[in-house]
Amino acid sequence: MSSSDYFLPDANLEPGAANARNIPYLPGHMGLEITRIGRDGAEGGFTIAPHHHAPNGFLHAGSLVTLADSLCGLACMASLPASASGFTTIELKSNFFATALEGRVHGVASPVHLGGTTQVWDCDVTHLDTGKRLALFRCTQMVLKPRKA
Question: Which domain holds residue 55?
């Protein structure tokens, strides 16, 4: 398939462009850094800082969900056909296995199902320094079609 077969052109698959677009939005505020975007998935992470913690001092679950949801959303957008008008999340689920207080968190989003109406994506979130799995995330995306006049 060529770039014109997809919703996003190849030029929009550059991590630097995604990071620049994220600056004013939640991923930018969280310090997320996208390191890879492809039609087959996305990768990225953040270095744990105090704003990633919950009031109890542990890593906030929402920090991990924000990372995983952002990576899955980028990958979904990259894999959408040109006939789509966008996508929206219709379900997400997370399992948490461990926490961390410092270091680098890394996520890898990969497709489970790439259908014409829905897509399902998984994101494995690990502590990059220790290799320990922190969370496993799954989301279902509805592929949006242009409205008929």
Answer: 3-144
The pTM for the full model equals: 0.95
Residue 97 maps to a domain? yes
Q: Is there a domain that residue 117 lies in?
A: yes
pLDDT tens for each residue of the chain, 149 residues long: 677 899 999 988 999 999 999 999 999 999 999 999 999 999 999 999 999 999 999 999 999 999 999 999 999 999 999 999 999 999 999 999 999 999 999 999 999 999 999 999 999 999 999 999 999 999 999 999 998 87
CA distance 4 to 2: 5
Q: How do 86-96 and 41-47 pair as beta strands? A: unpaired
If one counts the domains in the chain, the total is 1
